[in-house]
Design brief:
Elements (H helix, E strand, L loop, with lengths): L1 E5 L2 E5 L5 E2 L1 E6 L10 E3 L5 E5 L15 E5 L2 E4 L3 H8 L1 H7 L5 E7 L5 H5 L11 H14 L4 E13 L2 E4 L15 E5 L2 E5 L4 E3 L2 H13 L3 E4 L2 E5 L2 E12 L6 E11 L6 H4 L3 H25 L12 H5 L9 E8 L6 H14 L3 E2 L4 E5 H25 L12 H16 L10 H29 L8 H9 L32 H19 L64 H10 L3 H52 L3 E2 L2 E2 L3 H57 L22 H22 L1
Parallel strand pairs: 4-8, 4-19, 9-18, 9-19
Antiparallel strand pairs: 1-2, 2-21, 3-20, 5-6, 6-7, 10-11, 10-14, 10-17, 12-13, 15-16, 17-18, 18-21, 22-23
Helix pairs in contact: 4-5, 11-12, 13-14, 15-17, 16-17
Length: 768
């Protein structure tokens, strides 16, 4: 169900099933009927046209001479009663059940469209579809006393691509200041400025119909003395409310009765002057209508050219929309008009390809809905009061809580968390929701209090504030790993690199200097931007601060300048050197050292890395080639399908042939079908290969990433051990020792070495 809103009303449309447009043909009676050229099927649902070959074109003449058109009915020598029963009766009947309907008369000028739609005024039996539809509507209203049904009508004329209101001449309809325009909104298409008139009885509707007919523009030419020079749309609006149910739902519908102006061949009609200009506009709008019908019949078309002319724009809802659509094509039965007859029949066959989706139009009155909901709310409260009294719960209140009640619940939650209250009594659902809300409030307050306490006790540095971390490192307060520099504090020695300004015996001075530097840094760097508690790390003592740093993505070449690595290395199977070359005075650049590492200690890992990378590139190349083949097959499929659709549309336009219930197609269309089938088979096979290759590429990429990470990790370990760890500490990193390579960061080893030297110096001082 689709839901749409407009003002105080809500519009609902039940989704319907798609159905094709019904197309009928009515043949104008004539004494000169071409029996040899026009033949009807036995079921009166098909018509065959045969043209004699033009001998002037020579013996070899491949021009088509036979056509067959399938329709929903052929009306030949049919009365007005039979035409209405066949074409319009069901559409009008379903309109009172909420379905929109459209009945359109199309054909050559003088073929009897206006007679079919309006009828003749001389004889009551000759009245057309329009007056009979009004009569049926009011008769069905009289048969439904349980519903209050309102009927409104409007009469629109489209003359030379201009909109006119045929009922604007009525005394109570004032002159329009602004020109009428076609407007679209979520409820559909309507004409702004078109007057809509309420009719309470059948006589009022007929009076409006006759008033509009007198205002229509007509002219005469050689083919029709009273030719309509404009397209006219008579619309009946129906709105039905139930008298027995107090439901806010009601149904609406509309019936569009369209009398199109006839197409003209200027050579036959002999139109001149104003009539010629009118004929030009008529043929142009009918051509745009046919283009819209062709687009609607093509399922692949996304855009339908409705706005090319006023006629197609005004009928947008009817053509392929939420509507029961019926086309009645009027044709001549004479041989002289056979070309125009063929054109009209082609239009009817194209219209049969169009599908619509008729659905019931339901609306909801917001004011009545609110009143019904208020009544239901009162009844539900009364029913709850009865249940509470039976359960001895007399003090239950279902109204929204005030501030006093919310404060009481907050107090209960706090006492429950403190342990002074064992449980909270549950009264209703509204109280349960408020209890959870107060739990959230208390938790938020406690988080704020904890953060405030930590800010008063410790100096906090934002993890992402790299400027503050860099300033702390430059000041010598932390090392490159983010750990505080060790200083004597009376309890022992902290591990780390002692600043150059620190000397033994000046404990209080260095400690004071450290506090002053830390305080000034916090004021300078930390006052700029507030930070949240989630992005902060707090030290556990006043002489230790642990800021964290983010590790960037590892590239293939280790160009970043870092002293140590805290990554846990993978076990290495690479051969280790038994004897180390002399250590240079300054470490070589990392790119140069990396090339040496790949040729010596990391040669095995580098070889595996290159092999995996070559396999990955090969799989990617195969996947790219397969993708190109798939795209080529898809382009060929599209071209073949386009050619096949062209052949089908050409066959449908020229008429379809059947032999014992089987559709006959030519050899070219058959070959296209076979080719398209083979291409689809190739496409599926190639696509399956592409899926397998993509899975292999993903797996190979994972292996390459693993090898790259291991290669870089072991390089960091080797680089630090070879150029930064003191030689007297190398013994601890031998294979027989208990420390694995990379287990202890380089800064820790250096700090441990300094600590041991300091302890040895103190012991020697005591001995002296």
């Amino acid at each position: 169900m689709m839901r749409r809103k407009n003002g105080n009303k809500r519009y609902f449309t039940r989704m319907g099933t798609r159905k094709k447009v019904h197309a009928f043909v009515r043949v104008k009676p004539t004494d000169d009927f071409a029996h040899e050229m026009i033949k009807y099927g036995d079921d009166n649902k098909s018509i065959d046209i045969h043209l004699k070959k033009d001998l002037q074109r020579g013996v070899v003449n491949n021009k088509q001479t036979d056509w067959s058109f399938k329709l929903d009915g052929v009306l030949h020598n049919a009365s007005q009663d039979l035409v209405y029963e066949t074409v319009a009766k069901d559409v009008v009947a379903q309109a009172l059940n909420g379905y929109n309907g459209t009945i359109m008369c199309y054909g050559q000028t003088g073929a009897g469209k206006t007679y079919t739609m309006t009828g003749a005024t001389e004889n009551y039996k000759h009245r057309g579809i329009l007056p009979r539809a009004l009569q049926q509507v009011f008769r069905m209203i009289a048969e439904r006393p349980t519903h209050a049904i309102t009927v409104r009508v409007s009469y629109l004329e489209i003359y030379n691509e201009s909109l006119f209101d045929l009922l604007s001449t009525l005394p109570y309809v004032g002159p329009s200041v602004t020109p009428m325009t076609i407007v679209e909104n979520p409820q559909g298409v309507f004409v702004k400025g078109l007057s809509v008139h309420l009719t309470s009885q059948e006589e009022d509707a007929f009076s409006l119909l006759f008033e509009g007919e007198t205002n229509r523009i007509i002219a005469s030419h050689t083919m029709n003395k009273n030719s309509s020079r404009s397209h006219c749309i008579f619309t009946i609006y129906v709105e039905a409310h139930s008298r027995t149910l107090s439901d806010e739902k009601y149904i609406t519908s509309k019936i569009n009765l369209v009398d199109l102006a006839g197409s003209e061949r200027l050579g036959k009609s002999g139109s001149e002057g104003r009539v010629l200009k009118e004929a030009t506009y008529i043929n142009k709008s009918l051509s745009f209508l046919e283009q819209a019908i062709i687009a609607l019949g093509d399922q692949k078309r996304d855009h339908i050219p409705f706005r090319q002319c006023k006629l197609t724009h005004a009928l947008k809802d009817s053509l392929g929309g939420n509507c029961n659509m019926v086309l009645l094509t009027n044709i001549y039965g004479e041989a002289a008009q056979l070309e125009e007859t063929l054109s009209s029949l082609r239009f009817a066959s194209r219209m049969k390809l169009v599908t619509t989706e008729p659905a019931i139009n339901e609306k909801y009155d917001a004011e009545r809905m609110v009143k019904n909901l208020e009544k239901e709310l009162v009844l539900l409260k009364q029913e709850l009061a009865i249940h509470d009294s039976l359960a001895n719960r007399t003090l239950v209140n279902y109204d929204p809580m005030d501030e006093i009640q919310i404060a009481e619940i907050n107090s209960q939650v706090r006492r429950y968390l403190e342990g002074t209250l064992d449980e909270i009594d549950i009264i209703n659902l509204r109280q349960i929701q408020e209890v959870f809300n107060q739990f959230r409030v208390v938790l938020s307050q406690q988080e704020q209090e904890v953060e405030a306490t930590l800010r008063r006790k410790y100096t906090l540095i934002d993890k992402n504030d790299f400027a503050a971390i860099s300033a702390v490192q430059k000041a010598g307060l932390v090392d490159v790993d983010g750990h505080l520099v060790g200083e004597p504090d009376g309890q022992g020695f902290g591990l780390g690199v002692t600043p150059y300004s620190t000397k033994p015996g000046k404990k209080s001075k260095s400690k004071k200097m450290f506090k002053e530097q830390l305080g000034s840094l916090a004021r300078k760097e930390g006052a700029g931007s507030p930070v949240s508690g989630k992005d902060l790390e707090v030290s556990t003592s006043k002489t230790q601060l642990t800021p964290s740093s983010k590790e960037g993505d590892v590239k293939e070449l280790p160009l970043r300048d870092r002293e140590t690595s805290s990554i846990e290395p993978l076990p290495s199977d690479s051969p280790k050197e038994e004897s180390r070359p002399p250590r240079p005075s300054t470490p070589p650049p990392k790119p140069v050292a990396f090339e040496d590492f790949k040729n010596e200690r990391g040669s095995e890992i580098n070889r595996i890395f290159k092999e995996n990378k070559s396999i990955l590139n090969e799989r990617r190349k195969r996947a790219s080639e397969t993708t190109q083949r798939i795209n080529a097959i898809k382009r060929e499929m599209d071209m073949t399908e386009g050619a096949l659709n062209f052949q089908r549309s050409l066959r449908e336009k020229q008429g379809e042939y059947e032999n014992k219930g089987l559709m006959i197609i030519d050899e070219e269309e058959f070959l296209l079908i076979l080719k398209l089938k083979d291409l689809k088979k190739q496409y599926r096979a190639e696509y399956q290969d592409l899926r397998d290759l993509r899975a292999e590429v993903q797996y190979c990429q994972h292996l390459v990433d693993q090898c790259r990470h291991r290669l870089l990790t072991e390089f960091d370990i080797w680089y630090n051990e070879s150029f930064f760890i003191p030689e007297d500490m190398q013994v601890s990193l031998k294979p027989a020792s208990g420390i694995r390579p990379g287990m202890v960061p380089i800064s820790r080893l250096v700090a441990l070495r300094n600590y041991l030297k300091t302890m040895m110096g103190l012991q020697q001082g005591h001995r002296k």
